Amino acid sequence: MIGRLVHLAAALLFAAVFAMPAAVALAQDSGQPDAYTPVEEFSKQLDAFKKSIPELNKKIEDSAASVDRWTDVNKARKEIEELRSIVGAALGAVADNGPVSTLGTQALNHARNKLRALEQDTRFKTEEREFLLEQWRKLREETEQATEELGAARREFAELLRTLQSNEDFIDELMQVRQAQKALEVIQRLTRDIRDASDQLKKLIGAIKPPGV
Amino acid sequence: MRTLAAAGAALALVGCQSTADVGYVEIRTVPVSTNVSQPSLYLDTIKVEPIRKGSAVLTQRVGTTKLATDGAGGQLTLCEIVVKKNRITTVTVTVLERPPRCQCRNAGGSGRTCIS
To answer: From the CA of B65, how many Å to the nearest CA of chain A?
Structure first.
């Protein structure tokens, strides 16, 4: 179960990070920093996220491996809590109101606006305008693809977090079962003690004989 | 320079968010179709960006937050959402109904409170 989670996590991290290099590369090749600023910011954020991935992936793998060997529910619960914290941080980075997604939306809007503006622009020769339009179309498509991938990563992280939650809830329920079993044992012991005491009392009462009988 | 500063600030934001007490709210809209005009949604007082492809995941501070929409006399509360640290609470909003209705994946006692 947890092993599958690790594979899922690894796959989605890989998808989130490596499926979007084209937009990044296009942005970095630009000689017009002002025009490309939203795209550049988006690419920087993606880079930062990408750099955090190997460590994140290792943490998930380590935690999941120890959960796989669980015998102690308290320990397993703690490990799942740690995993939730790791996945939660990753989800936070790609959340719809997170920095990467916000920049992605800005970059996409910028590319779309730029295309609209260039289509009306009469400053350039036809071939120059076509060249610029082609560049921006390519950039828009790549950015769209990058935001799509980000959306896929978001869905996967959310699903992963939900799975961890239900695992933790299950462990909590298991712990409650254990507590209930312990309580039951105490009650059973108490019942046995009372029964013993009652037997003793019966014997005592049986031994009492009125004088002359 | 400006770009570097922005990237730095955003990175700092990511860093802060990972340590702060935050959880996640997933808002799903049904039907998913974008042809249906979506009502404005608010998490407490903050307007939620139009939901694309029927789902949005939002970082939210731990605690109870209200999901609201525009009503005749101001904001109309649809339901309450309990946000727990590093947990995700899912709520489905049926946008065809007027006012929209919340369906909790996991409902609390009152039925209008979604919990994780």
So the answer is: 16
> Using a CB-CB distance cutoff of 8 angstroms, which residues of chain B are in contact with residue A81?
86
Question: What is the least distance, in Å, from the CA of A165 to any CA of chain B?
Answer: 7
State CA B64 to chain mean position distance.
12
Give the up-direction half-sphere exposure of residue B31: CA atoms within 13 A in the CB hemisphere: 6
Taking only the tens place, the pLDDT of each residue in A9-60 is: 544 444 444 444 434 433 344 444 455 577 777 777 777 776 766 676 777 7
Query: What three-state secondary structure class fits B1?
Result: coil
Cβ(A16)–Cβ(A150) below 8 Å: yes
Chain B residue at shortest CA distance from A84:
B86
Closest by CA position to A107, among listed A147, A138, A154: A147
Averaged pLDDT score across all residues of chain A: 76
Residues A126, A90: contact at Cβ < 8 Å? no
Pair type for strands B101-104 and B113-114: unpaired
Phi, psi of B76 (to 5 degrees): -110, 120
More confident residue, B16 or B38: B38
Maximum C-alpha span of chain B: 53
pLDDT digits (tens, 9 = 90+) for A97-118: 988 888 888 899 999 999 999 9
Residues contacting residue A105 through CB under 8 Å, at least 6 positions apart: A147, B49
State how far residue B71 is from chain A, nearest Cα, in angstroms: 24
Q: What is the pLDDT of residue A133?
A: 93
What is the ipTM for the molecules in this complex? Answer: 0.72
Q: Do A98 and B17 touch (CB under 8 A)?
A: yes
